[in-house]
Amino acid sequence: MSNIRCIFVEKKTGFDVEAKSLFDDFKRNLRLENLEKVRVINKYTIGEVSEEYYKKALNTIFSELTVDNVYEEKAPVVAEEEIAFGVEYLPGQYDQRADSASQCFQLLTAGDRIDVKSSKIIALKGNLSSSDVDRIKHYYINSVDSREVDINNRELQTPLNVPKDVEILNGFTNFSEKELEAFHKAQGLAMSIEDLVMIRDYFKNEENRDPSITEIKVIDTYWSDHCRHTTFATTLEEVEIEENKYTVPIKKSYHAYMKSRDYVYGEDTERKVNLMDIAVIAMKEMRKKGMLDDLDVSDEINACSINIDVETDKGIEKYLLMFKNETHNHPTEIEPFGGAATCLGGAIRDPLSGRTFVYQAMRVTGAADPTVPVEETLKGKLPQRTITLGAAHGYSSYGNQIGLATGQVAEVYHPNYVAKRMEVGAVIAAAPKENVIREEPKKGDIVILLGGRTGRDGVGGATGSSKEHTTESIETCGAEVQKGNAPTERKIQRLFRNATVAKMIKRCNDFGAGGVSVAIGELCRGLDIDLDKVPKKYEGLDGTELAVSESQERMAVVVNEEDADKFIALSKEENLEAVKVAVVTDTERLRLFWRGKAIVDLKRSFLDTNGATQKTKVKVEAPIDYPYEVSDVDVKGEWIKNLHNLNVASQKGLVERFDSTIGAKTVLMPFGGKYAKTPAEGMAAKIPVWGGDSKNASLMTFGFNPYLGTWSPYHMAFYSVIESVTKLTAMGGDYRHARLTFQEYFERLGKNPSRWGKPFAALLGAYKAQEDLKIAAIGGKDSMSGTFDDIDVPPSLVSFAVGYEKADRVISPEFKEKNSKLVLLTVEKLEDGLINMDKFKKNMEIVYGLIGDKKIISASSTKMGGVSESLTKMALGNKIGCEFTNLSKEELFGYNYGTMVVEVKNMDFSKVAGLKEEKEELEEIVDFLKNPNKYIMLGARIPKGILLEGPPGTGKTLLAKATAGEAGVPFFTISGSDFVEMFVGVGASRVRDLFAEAKKNAPCIIFIDEIDAVARRRGTGMGGGHDEREQTLNQMLVEMDGFGVNEGIIVMAATNRVDILDPAILRPGRFDRKVLVGRPDVKGRKEILEVHAKNKPIGDDVDLEQIARITSGFTGADLENLLNEASILAAKAGKHFLTQAEINQAMIKVGIGKEKKSRIISEKEKRITAYHESGHAILFHVLPDVGPVHTVSVIPTGAGAAGYTMPLPGKDEMFLTKGKMLQEIMVDLGGRIAEELILDDITTGASQDIKQATATAKAMVTKYGFSDKLGLINYDDESDDVFIGRDLAHSKGYGENTASVIDEEVREIVDTCYKKAKKIIEDNMEQLHASAALLMEKEKIGREEFESLFDADNNQADSLTNEKTV
pLDDT per residue over 1287-1332, tens digit each? Predict the structure, then answer.
């Protein structure tokens, strides 16, 4: 005892957060008015250590000088003023604080660990009675894992007895059934009496010996519901489904399930019907039909696993995406911190054993009301508040220590969870597919135990969680709770990310349920396990405890014998213990040895039976009338009442106990918006890439309502799936590619057919949803022990939906913009309590597309609080409110699963670039719609109709949408072609319907796109006055005349053919204002490019101003297409941002055609093309009003050209000069001239050039009055296009003599330009040859290379500028 020291550490005032929290907790929940103060002192009892290291440790390991007061040897408690008691862990429970301190000592001394034990001292001040103190102790000390201890106790280790040899159960094989029942009760076994009879007969008839107690415990663990899902495997012999309208779909689903069985197994199958089969049949059917090609299938028992492609820095890589849900209901109920911590650890260990890296977690829990007074706590139970807070602390602590982000936390409340808490953890993991090697173990392979050591905590965890619990059993099950060691599990995570290590592993299993016997026993069919080699936390463990003790932070791995030592060495580099504990054999037996003796020796075939076949009957009771109809309520009062509901109220205080950002992969924060108040629909995180980044993200959501479960388990499960996929869609996911996993939690079923009917109906409801959606549940977890005395948990099936998308398309649910539109996408409810699935699926598909188009900017699925909950929470994040007038009380407050509120992006003038003047023209329309009285008072009449006229792609439709968005009025849109039908009267009817709907929603804008499709001139012979198009137009005229002046309805229309519209529609009072929407100028183009470049990663070398200069004549649509093509080219090249090179390629592709570099061209053809293009380029360079040259190429393009020369215009011009047009003709002729000068022959390559030159010359003569002979007369007739309905014949407007003069003048212009161009090229022959040679060598040259061929004095164009040609 003299070498033992005690240290007492207490937080200084201001830092004593835990003490203050306990004071508030005791005072409020125990109603201790006389309590004045609480102090918390951490006590450390340490073994022998030198004085030097002891002094160093005082203020480094045990305390921090700035925040702690440290006392040595004597507890700092004033006996006269305070009542103090100590609390320590029970012997065998894992003490992380002490373990961490011991490890720190090892680091400090670079030697062995020293013994450390920790405890807490709670000091109470106030006038407290002994009963008050007892109440505090009962409230604070959880007897499952802790006990009271004297504050001056200096005991460092509890003396441990040397364990006896494993007991052989002599006479067991001759036990009668009554003796077996007594044995069953005495041992507290989870298996049934039928199982025990089967074991007795096995040992009697096959082994010819009595079993050891270890063998009984191992079999009990193997066959437990937790490990082998024995409840789900029970044969369902008779099924009775009661009759009413709500059971009609249940019967249909059961018949559909039987048909699915016939398809999967064959009609003559002898497979038994059981809950497990119902749970997996949809997956099996879809897999057989080839609908689950992404499913990763293996014999290893890991997590749900799918194959995905991940876009990383290195390109597209093959990955495995794994996900798993785990439940720790019973352990969390009796020891909240440890139970919830190991719930997360348990969820992690499955994908981790699959060699994947776990990077995000979700927590979904079920609790009774935690706000009820402590006095109302059931006997034998912890207060709900204690469970809720302790579990949250445990889960978050474990996640933080292992470095795992908790992306979503949700607690569901129902009074029946007082029977037993629901604690569910779900995780997402990923790894490169090449790292996961799965091979069949062979004889001689080595099993290595990796990670933590074995202790008593966790003994019987699998069997304990499989039992029904009572007040008495709670007091004896403390050892069943594991205490996870998060830092050790984190080391395993790091180790398994090492590709060398991962590729050595043939199989891997965790120690979560069943300990050594199951973790190692499941790896292969024949094993010899040496329990003496299993590392222990402390001595005193017997063979049975070593065989069945569970823990999170241990793995059993199978490696080739030659890899074992290397694997152990690499494990040591991560400071992980790795020990060879077993050898693979070919005996088909599981054998465990302790102290040199076989204490377990069982046939694998016997273990695989999973015990005696259980049989039962099933009765599905008909649900009563739907109890959740919304009555005629006061909306305001009901709204506020709804927000007080625990299932609707904000859970931010609970959620913020968890870290959602560890690992820097989180895409969605748990709460969105500037004020972080809007809860996310689910969680999303980027796929982790070792040493790199990815563009892809996983998505996970959940769905569940326990109140539906108490009414109808079938409908509850159906809507759990619906809710989970609706949430996934609201985040930006595609439900069609979702994968599901379920968490079932039900009461203890026993032999009662009606109790069996609940999970039976629930699984059929989930089956129905899977079949309708054509998506499968590929995993799940069941817990069938939700009973405490006579209280049952509500029937619970939680659906988790997992998706996979580009990270940049994920959206959050808070309102983003003022004046945006809200749309409620509803579902059609059916008489049988379900919904119209076709409409639901169509809604989800529309939302997915609109989110991808960036048109929907926020979305929220409706949950327990209805639409009122969605609107409230969506408004809080950015403090943007909403107004509505058309929602029913059922929609506001009812259960409307599958319904979604979406915010549609507001299109206003700020979103329209390059159309400044056009927007100014429409601003008065906006002002009228916003402030009509200002105009009406002055007698002004706002135009009824506005016609937007301009070339295709200039932004007419966008401008109309922006006008409505700017004014904040409804926008009704339809295309003119939608009115045109082969059936007479249909178009007119649609016009009437459109205007009728608009009148209901005035003020508003009706927009008719492509109005020329329906409003062409009437009365020209193609169908006469009875033509369907004409009837539609007549109706449109009637409707436009039918609504009054200043009624608030404005009709906007768009066309690029105003010349063919009927005059009647253009008169004042109808479309009485035209807005010309032209092609943007260089400034407008730059603005448009900036808008489209916002959502694209643009490289530093991209010059948008230069792009705007060289895209003269491009419309807004052309510019968007240009950047889109550049993005596609960058993606194909594996780049992460756009560079100028991709934009240049896109420019060529869009403007000229894709370069055909693969096309084989002879040297002769290349030489001809090089001189041809050099001829064009020289003229572009020399002539002042065209050019300069941007690019010259001899690479063929998709347009049929052998090469191209692209100029770089200096500026946009409103009109052409005569001089410039002459220069353009000269440039057109440059290619032919170069061919004539250099080659012996000429080619057809100049055909398009000649056509273009002729067209320009003809326009100069006939259109622009540039001919002295013909004067200022327009002879151009090409604008009078022929179209059916007006001109059936077409003739010239001048005679043959005039035509002859036109031809002569055109010839004169072309010939003169030819001579002048030829002289320029002849004067630059040196540059012509040099340019052609450079093109022959490089195939493509830019401006700088080309201009370097010319001397500074060689520019000779001055004499050409204003020279008279004709």
Answer: 444 556 678 888 888 888 999 999 999 999 999 988 899 889 998 8
What's the rounded Cα separation, in Å, for the pair 1016 and 1053? Answer: 13
Q: What pLDDT score does 1020 carry?
A: 52
Q: 1 exposed, middle or buried (CB, 10 Å; 0-12, 13-18, 19+)?
A: exposed
pLDDT at 1288: 46
1110: left (phi over 0), alpha (psi -120 to 50) or beta: alpha
Positive or negative torsion for Cα 1259, 1265, 1266, 1269: positive
**Half-sphere exposure for 252 (CA within 13 Å, toward CB):** 13
Distance CA 715, CA 727 (A): 18
Per-residue confidence (pLDDT) for residue 469, from 0 to 100: 42
Dist. CA 581–CA 527, nearest whole Å: 10
Q: Beta partners for 410?
A: 364
pLDDT tens-digit map of 1224-1276? 999 989 989 988 888 777 888 888 889 989 999 998 988 888 888 888 888 87
Distance CA(310)–CA(1039), nearest Å, equals 55
The mean-pLDDT minimum among 116-120, 541-545, 954-958 falls in 954-958
Q: Is 1173 a catalytic residue?
A: yes
3-state secondary structure 1003-1043: CEEEEEECHHHCCECCCCCCCHHHCHHHHHHHHHHHHHHHC
Based on the number of CB atoms within 10 Å of its own CB, is 592 exposed (0-12), middle (13-18) or buried (19 or more)?
buried
**In this structure, are strands 1004-1009 and 1049-1055 parallel, antiparallel, or unpaired?**
parallel
Catalytic site residue from 480, 814, 1173, 1339: 1173
Identify each DSSP E strand in 505-577 by its residue range. 507-510, 527-530, 554-559
Q: Whose structure tokens read 């569901």? A: 412
Q: What global pTM score does this model have?
A: 0.74
Residue carrying structure tokens 């003496």: 532
Closest Cα to residue 163, out of 479, 533, 540, 599?
540
With 0-12 / 13-18 / 19 or more C-beta atoms within 10 angstroms meaning exposed / middle / buried, residue 193 is middle
454: left (phi over 0), alpha (psi -120 to 50) or beta: beta
Q: What is the pLDDT of residues 211-258, one digit of tens each?
A: 999 999 999 888 876 666 778 889 999 999 999 999 999 999 999 999
- Sort strands 589-594 and 527-530 into parallel, antiparallel or unpaired: parallel
Give the whole-number percent of the chain exceeding pLDDT 90.
Answer: 46
Quick one: DSSP state of residue 1202?
A: S
Strand partners, 690: none
Tokens 């180790």 — which residue? 495
Query: In terms of pLDDT, which residue wins out, 1268 or 68?
Result: 68
| Number of Cβ atoms within 10 Å of the Cβ of 692 | 11
Strands 446-451 and 422-432: unpaired
What pLDDT sits at residue 1280? 45
Q: Would you call 340 exposed, middle or buried from its count of C-beta atoms within 10 A (0-12, 13-18, 19+)?
A: buried
Cα–Cα distance measured from residue 704 to residue 862, given in angstroms and rounded to the nearest whole number: 12
